[in-house]
Write a structure and sequence with these properties.
Blueprint lengths: L3 E3 L6 H8 L5 E15 L5 E17 L3 H11 L4 E10 L2 E10 L6 E4 L2 H7 L1 H12 L7 H6 L1 H15 L14 E11 L3 E9 L10 E7 L3 E8 L4 E8 L1 H6 L5 E4 L1 E4 L6 H13 L5 E9 L8 E8 L9 E2 L8 E7 H9 L6 H20 L1
Parallel strand pairs: 10-15
Antiparallel strand pairs: 1-3, 2-3, 2-6, 4-5, 7-8, 8-9, 10-11, 10-13, 11-12, 11-17, 14-15, 16-17
Helix pairs in contact: 1-4, 4-6, 9-10
C-alpha cells in the first residue's frame, strides 16, 4: 500500500516536506467517516478515534515512494501509532489508504484538535524539531527518537528564540559573515555535542582560515530569583550538581536561583512560573526581567532568561521540591536580603548567574521595596 491518509500534523505542508524530504507529495482532500480527531491527552499532537456520526478531515497522499514510506514510519513509529488500512472518501470517490492509529488506550481522550491552532502555537517548534529528528534516520530507532523528543523540542525552541535575538554587535558583523564548511553531531542525548568546520570574516575584512569548533548544545533556560519586598527576603534553592562533582569540587551541592529548560512552545515567562511551582511550590505572577544572555559563548549554546519574581515568602514556603521522575531533590532556603548581599560580597555564592542576578537585585532592591 503506497497511499496514506493524513489527519493531523502532516496536513501542514512545511512539516510534511521536512518529513518526506521533498515538496512533491501528491495530495488531495479526503475524509474518514465514523472517526474524530482529538488531542492525545495533553500532548500537542492528535490521535484519531472511532466515533459514530463524526468525520475526520485530511489529505490522501498517493503513490508514496519507498523512501517516503521509510521516512514516515521513522517519524511516526516511535509514538505508539500503527498503520491500519481504511477507506476514505474523496471528490473522485472512495479510495483505500493506510492511517496511523494510536495503540488502544495509549493516550487519554483530549480536547478537539485544530490544525490552525497547532500551526499558530506549536507548529514552528514541531517543524524545527522534525529537522533534527529526521537527521537520525538510519542511526537511531524511531523509539529512541521519540524518547528524546522533549529535548529535541527544547533545542528547537532555543533555535527559534535565537532567530529574534537583538543585534549586540558593535562591529556590524552578522551570521552572513560566516561560511559553514561541514557539520557533525557525534553525540546527542539529554544534551548534544555538535562540531562545525567554518570560516568567519575577520575585523580586517577578509575571511579566516578554516577552523574546527565543538559546541555543547542545550536548551534555553529561564532563571528566577523570588523576592518578598515586604519581608525583605529572597528564596534560593540547593541541589546536587554533576558539573562541580565531575570537576572535583568537595561541595557539589550548589545554591542557585530557580531554573529550568524552556519547553517547546513555551515562552521564557511561562517556564519561569512553571519552574517556580515545580521546584519551590511557589506561585508567582509579577516578573521583572534582569537580563538575557549566553553563559559561555565560546563553547556552549546555553542561553539564560533571568527574572526577579515578586512573591509572598512566609516561613512555611521552605521545603523539599522538584520532579521525582527527573531525579530532582531540591531544598529551598530563605535568606534576608542583607544576608544574601553579604554572601555575594564574601564569595559564598559560586554560581555565576546567581551572582549576576544578585548584583542586579542589590542595585534595584530599594525601588522594589518602594513599590510594594
Amino acid at each position: 500500500m503506497t497511499n496514506q491518509f493524513f489527519y493531523g500534523t502532516l496536513r501542514d505542508p512545511a512539516l510534511l516536506a521536512i518529513v518526506l524530504g521533498h515538496e512533491n507529495a501528491s495530495l488531495r482532500a479526503a475524509t474518514l467517516s465514523g472517526h474524530r480527531v482529538c488531542h492525545a491527552g495533553a500532548e500537542p499532537f492528535p490521535q484519531i478515534l472511532a466515533e459514530a456520526g463524526s468525520t475526520a478531515e485530511g489529505f490522501l497522499a498517493e503513490n508514496l515512494s519507498s523512501s517516503d514510506l521509510e521516512r514516515l514510519a521513522f517519524y511516526e513509529g516511535g509514538f505508539g501509532y500503527d498503520l491500519r488500512t481504511v477507506t476514505v472518501e474523496t471528490a473522485e470517490g472512495p479510495a483505500s489508504a493506510q492511517v496511523w492509529f494510536p495503540q488502544p488506550g495509549l493516550y487519554p481522550l483530549g480536547q478537539p484538535w485544530s490544525l490552525e491552532r497547532w500551526q499558530q502555537t506549536y507548529g514552528p517548534v514541531a517543524r524545527e524539531a522534525a529537522q533534527e529528528a529526521l537527521s537520525y534516520l538510519g542511526t537511531r530507532t524511531p523509539q529512541e527518537v521519540a524518547r528524546a523528543w522533549h529535548m529535541l523540542d527544547s533545542r528547537a525552541q532555543a533555535r527559534l528564540l535565537a532567530q529574534s535575538a537583538p543585534d549586540c554587535s558593535l562591529s556590524g558583523l552578522s551570521r552572513s559573515d560566516t561560511e559553514e564548511l561541514a557539520a557533525r553531531r557525534p553525540y546527542a542525548k539529554f544534551f548534544a555535542l555538535e562540531e562545525r568546520a567554518l570560516k568567519f570574516r575577520k575585523f580586517s575584512g577578509d575571511f579566516s582560515d578554516p577552523i574546527d569548533r565543538a559546541v555543547f548544545v542545550g536548551a534555553d533556560a529561564a532563571l528566577v530569583l523570588p523576592y518578598d519586598p515586604v519581608r525583605d527576603r529572597v528564596l534560593l534553592i540547593e541541589q546536587f550538581r554533576s558539573g562541580p562533582y565531575v570537576r572535583g569540587d568537595a561541595f557539589p551541592w550548589c545554591l542557585e536561583p530557580i531554573a529550568g529548560m524552556i519547553d517547546g512552545g513555551e515562552t521564557p515567562e511561562d517556564t519561569a512560573r512553571r519552574e517556580a511551582l515545580e521546584e519551590a511550590r511557589l506561585s508567582v505572577s509579577e516578573l521583572h526581567l534582569i537580563g538575557r544572555g549566553y553563559a559561555s559563548p565560546g563553547d556552549s549554546t546555553g542561553f539564560y532568561h533571568m527574572f526577579l519574581a515578586v512573591a509572598d515568602l512566609p516561613d512555611s514556603i521552605v521545603g523539599i521540591g522538584g520532579v521525582e521522575t527527573e531525579s530532582e531533590n531540591i531544598r529551598s532556603h530563605l535568606m534576608q536580603a542583607h544576608e544574601f548581599i553579604a554572601a555575594l560580597d564574601a564569595g559564598r555564592i559560586n554560581v555565576a548567574p546567581l551572582q549576576l542576578m544578585g548584583h542586579w537585585f542589590a542595585r534595584n532592591r530599594e525601588s522594589l521595596r518602594a513599590r510594594a
